[in-house]
Amino acid sequence: TIRASQLHGPADGPRLAVSFEPAGPADTLRRMVEACELSEREKQILDALIRGMSTKELALSLHISAYTVQDHIKSIFVKTGVSSRRDLVWRLFSRFGVV
């Protein structure tokens, strides 16, 4: 994350202070979602998977069938290049610093 602020006081022209900070987990997750082009529903499911929700819990909370949840999970796997929930969480942690 890059932050900049204008410095006040006597000077010959505008002065800025610039700082660089590591992106937080929420920013990193958002960028990963954008990079992998996940849909809004896939993002909701990804958030729930990170929290450890089961397919059944996801289906109940989103008012969709377990089969639909599985379809979304498969799509997330394809878009992120993984083949299991464990691989997905590992990828998020190791590559994107999430979790």
TrEMBL record:
Keywords: DNA-binding, Transcription, Transcription regulation. GO terms for biological process: regulation of DNA-templated transcription. PROSITE patterns: HTH_LUXR_2 (PS50043). Residues 31-96 form the HTH luxR-type domain. Pfam families: GerE. GO terms for molecular function: DNA binding. Gene3D superfamilies: Winged helix-like DNA-binding domain superfamily/Winged helix DNA-binding domain (1.10.10.10). InterPro entries: Sig_transdc_resp-reg_C-effctor, Tscrpt_reg_LuxR_C, WH-like_DNA-bd_sf. It comes from the Bacteria. This is HTH luxR-type domain-containing protein. It comes from Paenibacillus tyrfis.
